Here is the input.
Amino acid sequence: MPRRKPAPEIPPPEHLSNRAQQLWRDIVPRRARSPERLALLEVALQAYDRLQQCRELLAGGELLEKAEGSKMAHANPALKLEKEARAQFVKCWTALKLEFSFDVDNARIGGDEL
Here is the structure.
């Protein structure tokens, strides 16, 4: 039987962070080849980048802020954005069934320990 030609490399979208682009390169050849999966993976990685941006913003600031007028403390708005980005990432990741890779993850934990 003749060997199949390897699928052409699909480069990551340029607007993604370096880490998200690396995830794209790791995942696409094995787990995301169709246009539908590629689109969903891109949305997941955009959410991942937004999550990281929120984490960096929160790391450099306060979790609580005081309102100008009332001086009452309220949560930093970046907390809500972080939560929403995390939820979107997890939802896309789950839809892509990327929670577990038997080939990779099972090898790391010693084969039949599951």
